[in-house]
Amino acid sequence: MNPEGLRCKRALFDRLTAQAGPGLPLAGVQVAYAWPGGTAQREMVYGGGVRFTRTSAGHSGTGELWLETATIGLYIRVRTPGATVEETDARVQEIAGAVEDLLAADPELADGFTYSQMSGGTADYATDDEASVSVLAYQVACQYYLD
């Protein structure tokens, strides 16, 4: 039995990527499975690490059934030249609202994975002479069964 947290992360980011096209809720926002490095755009959603827990959920016909919960790092980052932190924070909040609405409206991800909640997060910012950057770091919980 292997942990499935990374497959759950892939399903989560496939869902978000599918909503980043023209006319869709994340239009104009770069969505990436991991930090894209030198190709990072001004507005982006990208994935971080994965933690998981496993608890017994009884027995199936073939053995013990396990409920695994993956906690996936999801980062929303906005960098805007000439903006204030309040402005970049506001834009991060708009993107976060779109992400939460998408997942709440249809929590079933691919391959039997189910989004369950935003289980926590942090927000921070940075500034330099050119731009303000705001980052919201979410912890996205996803559940699935293993046997």
From TrEMBL:
<protein>
    <submittedName>
        <fullName>Uncharacterized protein</fullName>
    </submittedName>
</protein>
